Automatic annotation (TrEMBL):
Descriptive protein name: Glutathione S-transferase domain protein
GST N-terminal domain segment(s): 1-87
Record's keyword terms, sorted: Transferase
Keyword set includes Hydrolase: no
Length: 230
């Protein structure tokens, strides 16, 4: 099989990061097609529609089957059909991992809205809003539950899974904004951030060109403590 993964900027695209990290972590070969976001959104959409039915990234193409798979969770499930190690073997761990991945896919809107993805910056968050604090507390609860129940070091046991790939952007966001989680949850976030696949993505994003509208969206008038790209 030959996979081609279409992605957006490593600096900004949390959705693209998930399947990219999953493929890298599992040692699955693929061709990467990077399509940088634009300041002209209608132009960006027209360009993305030339390869993606949704006009969005990520998108996986399997040249052997002809499958065109859009949406990060659908891509993860497609990969798992050929590589079952993408999910835990144990039924209970697999159920937890699927639940955790689905929750990330559909929830945590305050984290998405207030802590925009930017792998290259370190930003002073300030006092979190009530909504953001609820999301942070829920993430700490979820990570603690997974590590406690399945023994770690990953969210649903000994092996890296889809669930971990789905929370890789959270690890990056928390590093960007200095969010600290207590105990086992904090240790998990640190471990996830240091995973070689996550670090490879971050390193790629640091050297990418910046896009003013997305830089402003991540900073929002807050103090930039460090720019890793300088």
């Amino acid at each position: 099989m030959v996979y081609t993964l279409y992605i957006g900027n490593k600096r900004y695209s949390s959705w693209s990061m998930r399947p990219w990290v999953l493929l890298k972590a599992l040692g699955i070969s693929f061709d990467e097609k990077l399509h940088l976001f634009s300041s002209d959104l209608p132009k960006q959409r027209r360009e993305f529609l030339t390869f993606s039915p949704s006009g969005k990234v990520p998108l996986l193409v399997d040249s052997e089957t002809g499958a065109v798979v859009f949406d990060s969770l659908a891509i993860a499930e497609y990969i798992a059909e050929e590589f079952p190690a993408a999910w835990p073997k144990d039924k209970l761990a697999r159920a937890f991992a699927r639940s955790a991945a689905a929750e990330m896919h559909s929830s945590f809107s305050a984290v998405r809205n207030e802590c925009s993805m930017n792998v290259a910056l370190r930003i002073e968050l300030g006092t979190p809003s009530e909504a953001l604090q609820r999301d942070i507390d829920r993430l700490a609860e979820l990570f603690t539950e997974g590590i406690t129940k399945f023994g770690g070091p990953w969210l649903a046991g000994k092996e890296f899974s889809v669930a971990d790939a789905f929370y890789a952007p959270i690890a990056s966001r928390f590093k960007t904004f200095g969010v600290q989680l207590p105990g086992a949850a904090g240790e998990y976030i640190d471990r996830l951030y240091e995973h070689p696949a996550v670090q490879a993505w971050v390193e790629g994003g640091i050297v990418e060109p910046t896009l003013e509208r997305l830089e402003e969206d991540s900073i929002r008038g807050r103090k930039v403590l460090k720019n890793l790209g300088e």
